[in-house]
Amino acid sequence: MFAARVLPSISIDEINAYAKSMITEQNLVITINGPKKDGIKLPTVEEVSAAIKDVYTEKLEAYVDKISNKPLVENVASVGKVSTVKEDKDFGAVEWILSNGAKVVFKKTDFKEDEVQLSAFSKGGISLVDVKTIPSASFASQLVANGGVGEFSSTDLEKMLAGKMVGVQPMITEASEGFMGGSSPKDFETMLQLVYLYFTQPREDEQTYNSYMERMKAYYANASADPRMSFRDSVSVMMANHNPRVIPMSLDYLNKINYRQSLDFYKNRFADASDFTFVFVGNINPDDVKGLVEKYIGGLPNIKRVETAKDNNVRPPKGKVQNYFKKPLKDPKATINIAYTGNLDYTLENKVLVDAIKSVLNSRYIEEIREKEGATYGVGVRTYVRNFPYPSFGAVFNFDTDPARKDRMIEIIHNEIKNIMTQGPSEENLVKAKEFMLKQFDQNQRENGYWSNAIREKYENGIDINSKYKELVNALSVEKVKAMAEKIFSQGNIVEVVMSPAE
User: Fold this and answer.
1) Same-domain pairing of 344 and 275
2) pTM of the prediction?
3) What is the CATH number of the domain that holds 122?
4) pLDDT tens-digit series, residues 260-275
5) Beta strands 103-108 and 176-183, pairing class
6) Where are the alpha helices (DSSP H) in 311-466?
């Protein structure tokens, strides 16, 4: 309240005068941080003093904040039309197919007054390039986002979008390319304009690229000394069975990035809108924005390319493999990652059963490891059922513990899996799991992000994760969960990575 009363009475001259009185040569403290590493030369006191003196004697021009008054998009090469309209009664959505082949799906909601979420996707991604191109391809979307679009740098865009509720981020993953974004209803056109520009006019900015890469290289030059990085790299390499396409981030990796190659790859991935699906979920009426969609999405290029992601045979190893290693650590703890993997059809029922197994195991590890043994704050339990690159499942368990107790804790992880395979969950833990899953499902019904993901699942993988979810959860039984646990865990594919402190 005090600030609200006083702030309007303070003038800019008073602020400038106060700044001059506070920033002087007498009250200056300089701190310098650097890695504790042989060969690193820090500046001397004399060198720092000389640099400060140069700044004080330099004639500085007052900063002028330039904001472009140009429109984001001056013209669109061609405008498309909605050629087909189809209703999806299960999801309460409407699908448009535009004249350039792009699909646009709308689900109008009233969950949040000021929110429209965007998800756009097309199959392909980094899977389509050879191993040598992976470094450049993996950074392509980030480098484009850093560089801006059209005539506008990323800084220009930030200024132009000030006061608006809008954001669009290009994304290229292993299996797809697309966008994530969102806006308020009144800034919906701006969001479409950004999509149009990121599609058609990614901006080359060598200076921004060089600055970004310098920062990245400075960070990764010392990353090899970070044991957490070593652990993450070990896990990713082991989980891919040393496939050459899975390359841990390093200074060497960054040195292989070619800016021109990154931009060319990005432009190739966004050269064709005909195989893209755009999903809008939120407080937006499709009919009100039909003309805007026809203009900015219907006006995107179409070369009628038919693509899918490529299976490059990246697979976890078969059987049980272990990687136990030691590193000098500040904290005397063991870090453990255990993963079970295998084949499993990509269906909603299988996803529900695997989710139930996760929930039950999570309860058991809380009881056995955290509460009874007191050996860790908690075990992270993560499961997945995937369709790409092949129908599969994974169950991953990670935690930190006392090095002297790590073998016992690993034994408990495996014992609980054996128990659920041979005996199934207790009725009590299964009831808890079902209650949690149903509660989460009910909460999700009022979330735009959930519906955006559900629509994507339907279009990308061909399954409806919503309509029969409750029915499948209610039908869960001890025998069904036991049968699924036996089916997946009996495949016997286990990766154990354990990092302990060097003695």
Assistant:
1) no
2) 0.89
3) 3.30.830.10
4) 999 999 999 999 999 9
5) unpaired
6) 348-365, 406-422, 427-444, 448-461
